[in-house]
Design goal:
By secondary structure, the protein is an alpha/beta fold. It has 18 helices and 19 strands.
């Protein structure tokens, strides 16, 4: 039986979420991600961490930050906090600089272009002054980070703080090379760090190894929901609405009406969304008996593939979609030549920024309708985009490094958050009303400090209060019926070593099915092969970790 919920969840415990996406675009999502299945293919994404004896005793206390009141409140597991505008007089989060005057070294991945160097970067200079310690940040392009991380580990050259890259034998590494943060962050101890305490408890589950806290999470929460973004203005010109997609056949008809000339309804095949319409759970499923199974061999998988293939075969998906980078598909969406766009929920707001010169643009998200009507099952994302550890050799500097992490996690609505995200007023941004609007110096902000630590994510789109309201209401609607990944926070060595290869093989079969090179029936033997070559072993290891986890 699929684990679902239809009511709000206790704010201190939301578990078993799906493993999806990456850090601000870090890593490529494979078929299983698009299908609502788990991946672990780069930059530390995927399951790992908690599930050991003692985890329940060390989980940090969740305490929502009360210094700022959002327009719409957060309901962990149901909605993110949302702000229709930035507070006119944002409160200061910290009374003093968190640093100790000694430089702090950090390494992590990035999906942004390299920022101007420190000597030419006003924001970076001001960041160092406000932190009270110079931040020596070494960034590596996301696709190359795992190799760089492995080299640093092998050479025993890890910096003061480091983003956890993908690797095998992760628990052994974490308990030997990452500082034990338990005495500072467990239970109510975390209340000394209000920004970290504002991160929901579930985000901390993959930070626990052998009953000890060994990293801090980079929270994303529900802003990572897999979504279908819609150019509602383009639909309106046709006299239709995203609300008309009340089942798959209605969605198909809507797609046909949108397609014609150089316009194709879809920027990519929506296989994952259709799986959700069919209530197909994630790759790993927890039954009422406490036993894990897989959904890969669920008979509905072929139904979802057939429906998605039909959209492709009938010319409703852009013919160049397969293999085309998401950045290009975003351009199709912005130009209106691909008005239905599978992406992450957070792209709702970046696409507004990217297409600020498109007159009348209105973005919505497709409702989660059931395949035959009613409501489908929304796949919940994994809570984090990654995690950062402190070097085990940090010694008595640990409290200072945690204070810096806490300062970087200053909640949305504070003056520090505005600085961390938008930079120096009248240089990196200007104010329109109370909302920060980036200038041509905005690229200075991409120094990588958000990969050290980040605030619990909220919904905020400067100057677009209606978009904020729509986004919050969409979250609340689709999470009314949602499925979580039971393996979140658990560790499987086979998963760590084999999942990329297994995913790649399954992804190739899906692509062949979409292109008409193989029949839909090719999925079943591919799923069987997935299990034979590692999936069964992964299930066994996840089951062992689940059985040993006192928090489940």
């Amino acid at each position: 039986m699929v684990t679902t919920h239809s009511t709000s969840i206790h704010p201190d415990r939301i578990s078993r979420r799906v493993v999806l996406g990456g850090l601000a675009g870090v890593g490529a999502a494979t078929t299983l991600a698009a299908a609502g299945c788990s991946t672990d293919s780069g930059s530390g994404s995927g399951s790992g961490g908690g599930g050991q004896q003692g985890a329940n005793q060390v989980l940090p206390t969740y305490q929502a930050y009360e210094g700022v009141t959002p327009t719409y409140p957060a309901e962990p597991g149901r909605t993110s906090a949302a702000f229709e505008s930035y507070p006119a007089d944002p409160p200061r989060y910290a009374e003093e600089a968190p640093g100790d005057g000694t430089p702090v070294t950090f390494m992590g991945p990035t999906s942004f272009a390299a920022p101007p160097p420190l000597r030419n970067n006003t924001f970076w200079q001001e960041m160092n002054a406000r932190v009270g310690s110079d931040l020596d940040i070494n960034l590596t392009p996301a696709g190359e980070y795992d190799a760089k991380f492995a080299t640093s580990v092998a050479g025993d050259q890890l910096p003061d703080m480091f983003y956890i890259g993908g690797m095998a034998s992760l628990p052994q590494f974490m308990t030997s090379k990452a500082a034990d943060l338990t005495e500072y962050l467990s239970g109510d101890n975390i209340l000394n760090y209000p920004g970290l305490a504002n991160i929901p408890t579930d985000s901390w589950r993959e930070c626990i190894f052998d009953g000890t806290i060994r990293s801090v999470p980079l929270n994303r929460g529900l802003v990572s929901l897999p979504s279908i973004l819609v150019r509602e203005d383009v639909l309106a010109e046709k006299g239709i609405s995203s609300a008309d997609a009340t089942d798959f056949e209605a969605l198909y008809d809507l797609s046909k009406e949108l397609t014609g000339g150089d316009v194709f309804a879809w920027t990519g095949a929506p296989t994952g969304h259709i799986r959700n319409m069919l209530d197909i759970p994630h790759t790993w499923v927890l039954g009422e008996d406490g036993k894990l199974t897989t959904s890969l061999q669920d008979e509905r998988q072929e139904q979802a593939l057939e429906a998605s293939r039909r959209l492709v075969a009938d010319g409703l998906v852009h013919p160049e979609a397969a293999g085309t980078p998401v950045a290009t598909r975003k351009l199709w969406f912005g130009s209106g030549t691909g008005p239905l766009h599978p992406d992450s929920f957070i792209a709702w707001f970046s696409l507004y920024i990217q297409n600020a010169d498109v007159e009348g643009i209105e973005i919505q998200a497709l409702p989660m309708a059931g395949f035959n009507g009613g409501q489908g099952t929304q796949a919940l994302p994994r809570p984090n985009a990654g995690r950062t550890a402190i070097n085990a050799s940090a010694g008595d500097r640990i409290p200072t490094l945690l204070k810096i992490a806490d300062w970087l996690a200053a909640p949305t609505g504070t003056e520090e958050y505005r600085f961390n995200k938008y930079g120096v007023e009248d240089h990196n941004f200007t104010l329109e009303g109370s909302d920060p609007v980036p200038t041509d110096k905005a690229d200075e902000v991409n120094i990588g400090s958000l990969y050290i630590c980040d605030a619990a994510r909220a919904i905020y789109s400067p100057g677009r209060p209606a978009a904020t309201q729509s986004a919050w209401e969409h979250q609340k609607a689709v999470t009314e019926k949602a499925v979580e990944d039971p393996t979140y926070g658990l560790y499987s060595e086979t998963y760590s070593r084999r999942i990329t290869t297994l995913n790649r093989a399954l992804d190739a079969v899906r692509e062949d099915i979409m292109a008409g090179r193989k029949p839909v029936s090719a999925w079943k033997p591919a799923a069987e092969d997935f299990m034979k070559k590692g999936g069964t072993k992964i299930l066994e290891e996840f089951q062992q970790a689940l059985d040993a986890d006192p928090t489940r």
